[in-house]
Amino acid sequence: MDVVQVNSINSKNEHSGKIVVRIEYAALNYKDFIVASGRFGHLQTGYVAGNEGAGVVTESSNTSHREGDLVFVNGHGLGESLAGTLSGQVRLPPVAVTPLPEGMTTRDAATVGVAGLVAYAAGQLMGEGPIAVTGAMGGTGRVAAACYARAGRDVTALTRDINRAGILKDLGISTILPPLTEAELNEQSFGPERFDSAFDVTGGTLNWLTRHMRPGGTVALAGFASENNPNISALAVILRRLRIFGVHAGLAPSEKAQALHWVSKTLRSEDYAMLGHYADPDEVNELISGFGDKPGMGRIVIKMRR
Ligand SMILES: NC(=O)c1ccc[n+]([C@@H]2O[C@H](COP(=O)([O-])OP(=O)(O)OC[C@H]3O[C@@H](n4cnc5c(N)ncnc54)[C@H](OP(=O)(O)O)[C@@H]3O)[C@@H](O)[C@H]2O)c1
Q: Which domain holds residue 80?
């Protein structure tokens, strides 16, 4: 099914909020893949993908957002019950619209997007020692690993894509592990006490992670790219007194603003280009259908035509 209708406000959007945003950059994420593939249920008539994006406020009846403001938008039904950011314009309630920090462009904001929000949310609950980040060549893992590395943390990246992972070194990540074997993923013994925290987007790596955590460590579970029903050892969690918690990008508006501020202060300007794969609207259908199979491309950012 085609999921792009450029420059059309879906009628369902028109009555659902008070701020109109012209989208300059839409971002595609794993949720778009899940929705477009029908795993969230049947697609609604007029479905347009795009769970997030960044652009310019063109109309506002709310004092918190003024015409001309640069903003990031995500969630609140975008790309699900409401036409998504690939429609080129969205009308949203203020709660879904986050002002960009000084100096952050709409391209930068779409590049980090929900990955920046969730990396920030996890960082609020984790210690500051060595951290493992899984799915590090994918969109969320790559942004999280880069942010933690640029924040001065000792980051170990896990990826199946070791041949292309030099880009992670350029983002300041100190250690890149070769892909874990089936035996390692399923091992029952305890490994060295290596990580103080972990940020996991795969689910399927949890068993290995919990067996390599330091006592009292924290594991932020952000995704399930490989496994929604992971097999982990209760014994490892108990003996090492681990805390495993879920994190997601559905933050309060003030937290989203803080998250974008943190990202903009943490990343270097040259980092953004290494975090995203930039494409045109006519490539979207192929990009969405390729999620999950293809090598991680980083964040997928679509430059919208005016
Ligand atoms: N909690 C939230 O708010 C939030 C926000 C954004 C995303 N997510 C979730 O995070 C997950 C990743 O999303 P994404 O947008 O980053 O997707 P993505 O760009 O496709 O990246 C997923 C990465 O996971 C790794 N991976 C995939 N299948 C794997 C397998 N079978 N075994 C080991 N690793 C595998 C790969 O990393 P390598 O290429 O490095 O091997 C892949 O690039 C999804 O489950 C998504 O729903 C959650």
A: 11-112+272-303
